[in-house]
Amino acid sequence: MNTSPLALLGGQPLLSSPGPHFTWPPMTERDREAVAEQLTTAVSIPDRSGIIADLEDALASWLGVRHVVTTCTGTAALHSMYAAAGIGSGDEVITPALTFHATATPLFHLGAHPVLADVDEDGRLDLRDAGAGSPPAPRRSSRSTSGACRRTWTP
User: Fold this and answer.
1) In CA terms, which of 26, 80, 92, 97 is 20 to 30 Å from 117?
2) Are the C-beta atoms of 142 and 118 separated by less than 8 Å?
């Protein structure tokens, strides 16, 4: 275990060369060439063609699935996933209280209602908290990669 003081508090700095020490995103000459080539073809790709089709096909192959749909943002991806799952008006979707607002925002667009639940000590949705103080047990629930669960109440 290192017990030396932080450089901020007078300790020895680990890096002595001037920054920046890290840049994002990492860019190679191949990346620059691919962008330049795409700019000569089209800036916007409204259909599934060209580089978008190539990317989706490669992802589908790598993931071992039939279809992949790319989106421009994580929020758009969640919106697409919620809509594909059939979430709509009046549905309640359990979402973690400790999350980015985009987990819940697409639900409002679909007319659904996010229900906030606590997370456990590992940052995962705590399903025990999700059911506390709520109507009867859900008839059906499903988890997404965002940590959200859909619940539809039995009448």
Assistant:
1) 80
2) no
